[in-house]
Amino acid sequence: MGKVKLYGKEYPMYVTMGAMRRFKKETGSEVSQMGNDIVNITTFMWCCVASACNAENIPFQIDADKFADGISMDDFVQFQKAFEENTSGDDAKKKNPSKSK
Questions:
Q1: Domain range for residue 7?
Q2: Residue 100 resides in a domain
Q3: Model confidence pLDDT, tens digit, residues 4-48
């Protein structure tokens, strides 16, 4: 999904299994149950950045609240749209790949 700029530094941001695991540990809910709740989406964004940084050995010491304080509405909307595009229709394609052609 790209990168996000926080407090003058750019960080990687993409979905990993670790991000989904972090989200479950933080919220007690699965990512698939996130819905359009702004708190859940912002928390998942934070999980994605924390996980991507961990995977790339980039120090990331920003807690979820400070992360949310540094996210612009543009970053939020861009993430939400990209996430929805990447997840919408995937189940149908996986169940019957011939219908996606």
A1: 3-91
A2: no
A3: 999 999 999 999 999 999 999 999 999 999 888 889 999 999 999
